[in-house]
Amino acid sequence: MWRSPVRGPWLTAVFGAALLVALPVVAVTGLLDYIAYGPRFGQAIPSEVGWLHLPWFDWPTKPAWLFGLTQGLHVIVGLTIIPLVLAKLWSVMPRLFAWPPARSSAQLLERLSLLFLVGGIVFEIATGVLNIQYDYIFGFSFYTAHYFGAWVFIAGFLVHVSLKLPRMVRSLGSRSMRTELRTSRAATRPEPPDTDGLVSENPAPPTLSRRGVLALVGGGSLLVAVLSAGQSIGGIIRTTSLLLPRGRSDGSGPNDFQINKTASAAAIDPADAGPDWRLTLRGGHREVTLDRATLVAMPQHSARLSIACVEGWSTTQTWTGIPLAALAEHVGVPVPRSAFVQSFQRNGGFGQAMLQPNQILNPDALLALRVNGVDLSLDHGYPARIIVPALPGVHNTKWVRSIDFRS
User: Which residue ranges traverse the bilayer (predicted)?
Assistant: First the structure.
């Protein structure tokens, strides 16, 4: 394996160039998703990040599919690059175990950047894959570990790129991509010896050409993309999403679409969703209690909106209910600065959410009572749930108990 004649600076540089494009996409979308959760309200995890906090701003509600795009890219690109990361590690593996590890301060800095880079990316990929496959199997907070692990990776990535970019550019120019794609296995020859020791001193006969290696890695990434993208894109290809099983369907007819947490898992008492259910609205010095019949009699609005989950799936449905802005007006807060939503949920996290002004005042932001023309099912939040454009899925609170509009 380590004597393959295709290993060398050029192939390593090709893998590196591809990762140089993909990895920033994964990092930036992950950090944007953290901001979408509203860290200034203390509802992002981790809530305390010290000097690693990001610039805070009101997460946009337009376009309505924004969070679905950023989270979908984060998960799908993160999965798609796994074959590429493994190929890159294979191409430099002997170098990772060179001894002594450093002969100068420059080499020491390079080795430290490799430790942060390789350790960070392996940790992020391994924990990320496990998180989208299984329900909370870690003995620690995945979200906290993933956030700080991302910064470890980012630090290693930036230092490594600054040290290796000139060498990568030179290596890419040392051979012609077009020529390599036309070179057969029989005609494959090792690269000239290099100072990094990537080229084997005693190469074995080729079992694959460089174009074969590129096809194998590229085909693997394409296969992973096909087996995961459907959960975000939806439609007929959703059934091909074998790598993102967390988006379970739970319902029938118009209510048959993805959820993460059922009413049973949230420990919803049937009495809380029965005929005696009441919604409490607070604003300023007013408090109003409304039953579902009163809410149904109020002017209704319908909007086709998506729910996007941090695990990578999203679903778009048609929701009908009362605009949150109308409810704020109802309790005398026409220009709310925030809204605090509480659920009857007793088990698990995210039983409450704080909404920004633009999330309350968007015309399509609803207290939803119906979906796809029928009442919500209990698992989808009956008697009422929040649905806001571009809001992370867990903050579209189900089984709503009260809304406190604050001015």
Answer: 64-87, 108-130, 136-161, 213-237
β-bridge partners, 400? 343
pLDDT above 90 for 106: no
User: Is the pLDDT at 233 greater than 90, yes or no?
Assistant: no
Q: Does position 249 have pLDDT exceeding 70, yes or no?
A: no
Question: Residue 51, Cα to own-chain centre: how many angstroms?
Answer: 23
What's the DSSP call for residue 392?
A: B
Please choose, from the candidates 86, 83, 94, 97, the residue with its C-alpha nearest in 3D space to the C-alpha of residue 199. Answer: 94
* CB distance 325 to 316 below 8 Å: no
Q: What residues contact 103, with CB distance under 8 A and at least 6 apart?
A: none
Collapse the DSSP code of 302 into the 3-class scheme (helix H, G, I; strand E, B; otherwise coil) and give the result.
Answer: strand
Question: Hey, is 257 helix, strand or coil?
Answer: coil
Residues in the chain: 407
CA distances from 23 to 29, 55, 194, 223 (A): 10, 21, 26, 19
DSSP string, 40-83: GGT-SSSS--GGGPPPP-PPP--STTHHHHHHHHHHHHHHHTHH
Read off the pLDDT of residues 274-315 as tens digits, 9 standing for 90 and up.
999 999 999 988 999 999 999 999 999 999 999 998 877 889
Angle between helices 82-96 and 9-36 in degrees, nearest 10? 130
Instruction: Give the position of tokens 């909007």.
Output: 303
Give, for 287, the enclosing helix (H) or strand (E).
strand 286-290
pLDDT for 27 beyond 80: yes
Exposed, middle or buried, 162 (CB in 10 Å: 0-12/13-18/19+)? exposed
Cα–Cα nearest to 32, from 402, 399, 392, 326: 392
Q: Which amino acid is at 217?
A: V
> To which residue do tokens 């006969």 refer?
205
CATH code: domain 253-406 is: 3.90.420.10
> Domain boundaries in the chain?
9-240, 253-406
Which of 337, 344, 326 lies closest to 405 in space, CA to CA? 337
Residue type for 32, please?
L
**Interval 329-344 mean pLDDT:** 95
